[in-house]
C-alpha cells in the first residue's frame, strides 16, 4: 500500500516513467506468485506457522530496504524481496483459517480476513502520507515510511512463530468422521506440487474460479497504482492528500465486506452455487461502477464511484475462501490458494500492469483504466458465474472421498492385521481430454499375486502408471499399506517399498550390467548389504555374471528381463509391479522368469502382474482383475476367470496370447 501511495514520489526521485513504475510494482507481484508455489510445497511438509514467521521476517527486511534504493534496479530487487516474503501468506493463511475454525463459521472468518485488506488500505495510506508530512514532505522523505516498516513486520513474525498450528483437515474430519476418528493419524504422504496442480485443473469450479480471477487481475493490480498517478498528475494532490483519498476509496468496503460475508454465508448454507454467483455478480458491479466513475471529471464523484466499486470487489472476495475450501480436498488447499496468486498476479497482474502503464504513458491514466477495467471485470465475473454450475458436483466428490476415507479407517481399526498392501478406489484417469479409466477399484492383499488382464487399450498399463506415480489420476484414491499415495512423488513410493518393472523399459541400455545393478543398489541404505544383494541376483541369473561389462542395451530380450527381475531380487520390495513379463520372449525363457516370480511369491512379495498371455499370468496369480474399455469387468480368484468364456474370448479375438 505504501508503494501505491508513495509511487509518484518514488517516481520523481528515481526519474522513471509510468510504465517502469507500474512494471516494478507489478514485478514484486510476479515474484510473489512464483514463490507462492514453493511456499505451498513447504507448507505441505513443514510447520505452516514457522514458515509464515520466517517469510514475514524476509518481508520486513526487504520492505525496509526500499527506503535505501537509488535506482530502478535496486527497487526491482527490493520489491522482489518483499514479494518473496509476502508470498507465504497466499497459500498458508487461508489453509490455517480453514483448519482453525469450524465449517459453520468459516465464511465469516474468511470475510474477517478479507476485511484486513480494506482496513489496511484505509489506515495505511493515511499513516504513510502522515509520516511523509511529519518528516517535512520533502523530496526524499518517503523513505521514512519504509524504514519504520520493520517494526510491525517484526511483531507479526514473532506472533506467527509462537502461534500453535491447527491439525490439517481437522474440521472436515470431525464433520464426517466424528472427533474420535479425527484425532487418529492418517499418515498420508506429502502431495507432489505438479500432481496437485494437475488434479486441481480437474475441479471445474476451481478452474473457472481461478481463470476468472486471473482475468480480473488485469484490473486488480493496475488500478490502484494508476489511480494514484492520476490523482497526482491530473488533480495535483500531494502524498498526504492521496493517502486520504485512497483511504476514502476503501472506507465503504469496511462496511460492505462484513455484510457480504454474512449474506454469502446464508446463501452458502442454502445453496452453495448461489454464493459463487454472488461473487461473480459483485465483480461485474465492481467493473460497472469504476467505468462509470471514470466518465466524470469531478474528483469527488470519481472517488465516490471508486469507493462503491471497491466495496463490491471486497464483497466478492469474501466468497473465494469458502468456495475453495468446499470444492478442494483439504490435502491440496495450500496448493489451491497458491494457484489463486499465480492467476491474479502472473496471468493478469504483471501483464495488466505493463498494458495499463503503456496506455497511461501514451493516452493518460483515465483512458488506460477505461480500456483495461471493463473487459477484465466482465469476462472475469461471467467465468466465475459459469463455474458455479459445477459446484455441487465438486463438493459431492470431495465429500465422497472423505466418506471413503472414513470407511477405510473403520476397516483398518477393526482388522489392522489385514490391511491390503495396495488399494485402488474409484480411480479415473485421462490422457489430455481422453478419459481412459472409469471408476477402477481393486485390492491386493499381503503376499498375493494379482494378474491384471484385458484387451489392448483396456487401461492395464494406465492403471499401473497411476499406481506407480507416473500418471496423475483425475479422481479416486490409491493407498499402500493404508497410507494414501495418490498424489505423492514416485520416489516417495519407492521409499515405501514399491517397485515397477516396465515392459521393455526396465534397464538403462547405455549402462553396463554392473552399472545398472550398482545404481539400483543405491536404494539399499545399508552399504554392507549392497554387495550381498547383488550376489543374490547373480545366483538367480548366473549368465549375467559373464555379461557384467556388457551394455544392457546389447543383451537379448530375455537377458534384459532377467536383469530387470534381478532388481526385484536385490531390492526385496513390498509391492512389485510387473508390466508385460513375457512379451516377445521364447517359452523356455518365460518359464525361467516365472520360476523367479514364484520364488519372489514364496518370499512374501506382493505383486501385480500385467500380462498379455492369460496362461502365463494365471499360472502364478492368486487372483485376477479383467479390464475392458477402462473398466473392471471381473475381480476374483484366477481359476474363476478361466470359466468366463465371455471375457476370455475378447482376449483371444484381439490377438493376445493364450
Automatic annotation (TrEMBL):
Protein's organism: freshwater metagenome
Keyword ATP-binding part of the UniProt annotation: yes
Protein name stated in the entry: Unannotated protein
Transmembrane intervals: 20-43, 50-70, 144-162, 206-231, 243-263, 275-293, 299-317, 337-355, 367-386
Organism phylogeny: unclassified sequences, metagenomes, ecological metagenomes
Family membership: Belongs to the ABC transporter superfamily.
GO molecular function: ATP binding; ATP hydrolysis activity; branched-chain amino acid transmembrane transporter activity
UniProt xrefs under Gene3D superfamilies: MFS general substrate transporter like domains (1.20.1250.20), P-loop containing nucleotide triphosphate hydrolases (3.40.50.300)
SMART domains referenced in this protein's UniProt entry, alphabetically: AAA
Pfam families per UniProt: ABC_tran, MFS_1
GO terms for biological process, alphabetical: L-amino acid transport
